[in-house]
Amino acid sequence: MTHDRDEALFREVIGVARAQPPAQPGEDLLARVMADAEQELDTRAAARAPRRSALAAVWAALGGWAAVGPMAAAGVTGLWIGISPPAGLSALSQGVLGAQIVAVPLLGTETLAGLEAAP
Amino acid sequence: MSVPPLQDRPSDEALLAAYAQGDRAAALALTHRVLPRVLGQAQRMLGDAAEAEDVAQEAMLRLWRIAPDWEADRARVTTWLYRVVANLCTDRLRKTGRGVALEAVPEPQDDTPGAAAGMQEAARRAALRAALADLPERQARAVALRHLEDLPNPEVARIMGERLRTVESLVARGKKGLIARLRGRRAELGYDDDA
């Protein structure tokens, strides 16, 4: 008897939940779901795009190989001239600037000795 | 526009694969196909339209996210969605569904028999929600899939990833637990105690 009443109670309560009219998604829900679908595609596309490192960004800002090649060549040439000035350079600068080139060591021998003595 | 014969329609899994390749039209077609069922399942478990919409949206979002990794020989999309919706609903019930008081059911705007009956139905849905929320989660999922969705036990077992015997036990214990929780509210739910 109790079992039958319990079973009837269960059936009726479940029946009320099942008897709800068929769910029809509204336009708003449909739009939200499709917006999520679009967003996911965009997110994945962004994740697939090659990432540029900070170094690559600096490289690109300088103009890439086309710009950095000549710049490097000029730098090396300047360094070489500084280390080993051509024989005619002193005479040329004297003629153009009216001054003689004097080589001044940036680090004196005392300084180097001090560095070596440091703990 | 004529509807293509069923055998010519792409499967849910094919639509999902097409979406994963960037096909937005496939996503729309799949949404039209599965969203009503997803929403209906959530409404029956939660008894609340707004919450059911939130769950349906979340379930679909999870589907979009898993699309690139979907294995064609894995579960069917519908089976997967049944599981996700059941899990989302029990999670939500655990957080918000307990102790739903019948007083929370809105009073009818008029005193016609139809309004009173509507209120009683709402009260019964609220009682079911509270009882489901109070059950252990696996029992709640099993009993909801079996009795609210009217799925056979082997299908419930596939959805839940459990053995058939385990599901049979979960359904039986869940039903018993629901009855125990509803029995004490028989009178307030409008069932004649002398019947």
Protein described:
- The complex is a heterodimer of chains A (119) and B (195).
- Chain A has a domain of 29 residues.
- Helices cover 72% and strands 0% of the residues of chain A.
- Chain A contains 6 helices and no strands.
- In chain A, helix 3 crosses helix 4.
- Chain A is rod-shaped and about 125 Å long.
- The termini of chain A are far apart.
- The mean pLDDT of chain A is 76.
- Chain B is an all-alpha fold and 195 residues long.
- Chain B has 2 domains: 88 residues, Rna Polymerase Sigma Factor, Chain: A (Orthogonal Bundle); 97 residues, Arc Repressor Mutant, subunit A, CATH 1.10.10.10.
- In chain B, helix 4 packs across helix 5.
- Chains A and B meet through helix 1 and helix 2 of A and helix 2, helix 3, helix 5 and helix 8 of B.
| Radius of gyration of chain A using CA atoms only | 41 Å
Q: H/E order of the elements of chain A? A: HHHHHH
**Largest sheet properties of chain A:** none
Provide the CATH top-level class of the largest domain in chain B. Answer: Mainly Alpha
Mean pLDDT of chain B: 87
How do the helices and strands follow one another from N- to C-terminus of chain B?
Answer: HHHHHHHH
Q: Tell me which CATH architecture of the largest domain in chain B applies here.
A: Orthogonal Bundle
Strand segment tally of chain B: 0
Low-pLDDT runs of 5+ residues of chain B are none
The overall pLDDT average of chain A reads: 76
Number of H- or I-type helical stretches of chain A: 6
Give me the CATH superfamily of the largest domain in chain B: Winged helix-like DNA-binding domain superfamily/Winged helix DNA-binding domain
Instruction: Count interface residues per chain for the largest interface.
Output: A-B, 31 and 41 residues
Any idea how many domains of chain B?
Answer: 2
Structural class by SSE content of chain B: mainly alpha
Beta content of chain B comes to under 5%
Alpha carbon gyration radius of chain B: 19 Å
Helix content of chain B: 55-70%
Query: Which regions of chain A contain 5 or more consecutive residues with pLDDT less than 50?
Result: none
Strand proportion of chain A, as a percent range, falls in under 5%
Total helix count of chain B?
Answer: 8
